[in-house]
Backbone:
């Protein structure tokens, strides 16, 4: 049996014939204004980069100096990593390390958007209802992390993952004794149903992005994004001064260069695409986000206050 569905945009005519009510779709010509084009719905674009298939590492220390935007309600900046086997095993089997994320619904509810941060780890497999093993910390930092550049550091060895914010370094860029991590998870555990030790002993690649809306801030309506407004010309920017990866978690080298295995100082006139992939997609980042990622939203330039040469990830409402 075939089913035919008709959509009538005209008026409905009615007549009574031999006691039967007849309904017919009558042509309807509306009054067409001079410009029949309806106003375009606003769209949001932003920037995201990653090092998949260009650089990954297992164990060591990574330092990222970044100035995060005022997230207000709706922005979701992040520095994070995933296992470079993501294309074969998928997420979260590949594992994920979140070094810093800001913009969560908890921070919005508490009114601490500029201080509330998330860091943690996810691993596989996906369970019923899209659940999965994870260990996350979500709380308010003592001071704003959206006022200036801050150093976000991951220390990763065979035993533990540790995350630091603004750790003290010596002249040789080594972590000074006495730094306290704001996140710590043992990864040398191999018992239980989904042992963490199975997932965090393989190389990870680096991801940095400025997402807008979605599941994390729990904002799915573009009109509820308060971070992009007339006062900032409907734009917000995440600046990254440098990314450095060291071979050892706590080096005792005599110079900063020893132990350094990879870095980008973003001191050229464009993004080094031998190091970074610039993403283009419309899939909402997998978390029902509102932005589309575009090459045009990723560049290298000066942060206006400090004059530092930076990677620039720009979110726009257009």
Residues:
């Amino acid at each position: 049996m075939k089913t035919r569905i008709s959509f009538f945009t005209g008026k409905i005519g009615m007549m009574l014939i031999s006691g039967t009510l007849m309904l017919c779709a009558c042509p309807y010509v509306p009054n067409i204004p001079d410009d029949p084009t309806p106003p375009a719905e606003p769209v949001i674009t932003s920037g995201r980069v990653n090092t998949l298939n260009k650089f990954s590492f297992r164990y060591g220390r990574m330092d990222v100096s970044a100035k995060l935007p005022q997230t207000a309600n709706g922005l979701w900046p992040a520095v994070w990593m995933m296992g470079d086997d993501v294309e074969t095993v998928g997420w979260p089997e590949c594992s994920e390390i979140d070094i810093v994320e800001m913009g969560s619904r908890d921070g919005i509810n508490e009114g601490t958007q500029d201080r509330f941060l998330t860091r943690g780890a996810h691993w596989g497999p996906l369970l019923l209802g899209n659940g999965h093993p994870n260990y996350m910390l979500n709380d308010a930092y003592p001071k704003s992390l959206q006022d200036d550049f801050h150093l976000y550091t991951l220390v990763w060895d065979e035993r533990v993952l540790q995350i630091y914010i603004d750790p003290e370094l010596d002249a040789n860029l080594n972590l000074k004794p006495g730094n306290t991590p704001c996140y710590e998870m043992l990864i040398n555990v191999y018992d239980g149903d989904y042992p963490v030790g199975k997932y965090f002993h393989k190389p990870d690649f680096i991801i940095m992005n400025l997402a807008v809306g979605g599941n994390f801030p729990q904002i799915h309506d573009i009109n509820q994004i308060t971070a992009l407004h007339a006062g900032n010309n409907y734009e917000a920017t995440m600046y990254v001064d440098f990314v450095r990866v060291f071979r050892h978690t706590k080096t005792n080298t005599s110079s900063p260069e020893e132990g350094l295995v990879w870095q980008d100082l973003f001191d050229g006139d464009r993004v080094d695409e031998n190091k970074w992939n610039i993403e283009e997609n419309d899939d909402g980042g997998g978390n029902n986000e509102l932005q589309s990622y575009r090459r045009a939203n990723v560049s290298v330039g000066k942060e206006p206050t400090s004059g530092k040469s930076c990677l620039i990830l720009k979110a726009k409402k257009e």
